[in-house]
Amino acid sequence: MFDLDSYARKFTDMMSEGFIFIDSKGKIQIYNNKAKEIFGIAHNYGISHGSGKIEEGDIVIIGDNCLGKDDGNLTPEALSCIGINNDKIQMGNALIAIGSFNDKNKEKAVYKYIKPDYETKDLQLDCVYLDTEISVIIDFKNKFINIEVNKENYNISYINYIGHIVVLDGRTKKLKFYQTHGYTARGEGVHDILRGKKFRGKGENSEFFDVIGKDIFEIHNGGSTIDDFYAAATGKDISYANEFKEINGRPTICTLLPVNSEGQRVGAALKVEDISEIKKAIRERDEALLNLEQMERRLREEDDAIKLLPEIIGESKEIINVKKLAIKASKTNSTVLLLGESGTGKSLLARAIHDNSKNKNKPFIHVNCGSIPETLLESELFGYEGGSFTGARGAGKAGMFELAQYGTIFLDEIGEISVSLQVKLLQVLQNKTFFKIGGNRNIEVDVRIIVATNKNLEEEILKGRFREDLYYRINVFPIWIPPLRERKVDIYPLVQNMLPLICSRIGCEAKRISGEALGILSGYEWPGNVRELENILERAVNLAEGNTILSTHLAINKVEEYNDVGRVEIKPLKDIIDEAERRAISEAILISRGNKKAAMNALKIGKTSFYEKVKKHGIE
């Protein structure tokens, strides 16, 4: 009806939509370039292979996201040609299969199959088959199938369903065929290839695939849209504009118009717009908006963390994450477990969680389980009835749990509690009830419990020093506070916050810190964490006569750099211990402003031992 070089054909090739015209016999007369692009029947492919067909012994690699859909109607039974006979494989399964075509003497087939659901992310198979490295992945989330053969990738994307296949020559192991878009139009579905249908060459070996003059059903094998197209061309009054239709598995917007000439039906025209690209653009836009929302939410959370927990100083991502968790913990009544080395600020964080909770106006009771003798800890926690033991008050005593009623009790250093007392604590956690020492009345409490430890409780369980059931009761909402050495970016804001407070506390004028001194602080490893930083700053404030803290005022070892490792002097352990002992006693005397009794108490050593060590180290 139309000549090859007619104006109509040239005009339709300029269109941005696909355009197909068939005559009254269903033969294609116009199939413009955009339609070829949409349905993948352009002939310029990248990796080359010649035309041919599958032969005995060829290696077949299949990736199919839905058996029987857009794969040439492949069936489980058809897989027997590559050595797979499994009656558990069903239509609709996702399948990866590697086998030798019609050759029972070759290596046994390798395969995987699943029934995917909306939560399935991917299906993957990696193997060496007949000395060939093969990797296949079906990515259900990103909608693509990739077959990798000896580091060469054959990737094909899909919208709903697809059957992907790669064929290697059984003798040479070289590429013989691989699947590309437009396989339906070319009749090169997986099942077609396995049935021995001849396939076309690609790349340098490709030949022009001319659809003009072919029956529309040769290029598009059925479907309601193609059926309507043919019916309109052959005389039925069917037409529509801009309706959603699916052709060859691709979502499109179609306009169908019958074409008449001199009162006679001469064919029909189908205009096709590919909306898979529109869907892709919408998906990319939605992902960008989602990423933006997530970023805004993260920024809001960080801003909230800074505003709501100003007492927790730091700007590192580690401490910001701790603040976020603390804010979430403050909104619940769950038991919180604070983990971290000594001096990281667990007590401060526990108080911050309470102060931001709905019970912030109720009591906050801090119990340091490690500083109270074991014989007294039970009575301190649960109280006692009058006269229940020698030395008990006549009126009895309320325990810490009672005093914390409707508020928060913070059990610091919970790893120091004896196993026998852990049993009673477990009862409080489980039932929120307990008995006083010597009492027979079950006391109910409504308290929020926060616990902290610097010990590895899982190791303590293995050693029999901590009950496993108690561990699971307290490990409901764990928060790990990283040591200062892992967040050195926080040293500067900590110093800036601490210095004014220290100066105010000891009653001296405000002081600043030099850049060199700050550099030394940043290079130190801080085994004592934030508490050690505060002590060192307080000592430096006392030593500094002017208003600037210099490096000479810092009581820490200066970090030296050695280009030659052999120059580093390794001191005997005894010398290191003596040096640490001398420094600790000197600092204690200095911080106590010469009050030796206060220094003894701070160091927790006796008078005789204290003066012996002062004399030994020559401390004045």
Explained architecture:
- By secondary structure, the chain is an alpha+beta fold.
- The protein has 5 domains: 7-38 and 213-274, 2-Layer Sandwich (Beta-Lactamase); 59-176, no CATH class; 309-482, P-loop containing nucleotide triphosphate hydrolases (Rossmann fold), CATH 3.40.50.300; 484-551, Helicase, Ruva Protein, domain 3 (Orthogonal Bundle), CATH 1.10.8.60; 560-620, Arc Repressor Mutant, subunit A (Orthogonal Bundle).
- The protein is built from 20 helices and 25 strands.
- It has a 5-stranded antiparallel beta sheet.
- A hairpin with a 2-residue loop joins strand 13 (250-261) and strand 14 (264-274).
- The longest helix is centred in the middle third of the chain and has 33 residues, at 276-308.
Describe this protein with a few key phrases.
five-stranded antiparallel sheet, Rossmann fold, 620 residues, Beta-Lactamase, 5 domains, single chain, 20 helices, alpha+beta
Q: Helical proportion?
A: 25-40%
- Average pLDDT number: 85
Query: Briefly, what CATH class of the largest domain?
Result: Alpha Beta
| CATH evolutionary superfamily of the largest domain | P-loop containing nucleotide triphosphate hydrolases
Low-confidence sequence ranges: 558-568
- Separate helix tally: 20
Main sheet? 5 strands, antiparallel
Q: What is the level-2 CATH architecture name of the largest domain?
A: 3-Layer(aba) Sandwich
CATH fold annotation of the largest domain: Rossmann fold
How many domain units?
A: 5
Please give the alpha-carbon distance between the first and last residues.
Answer: 115 Å
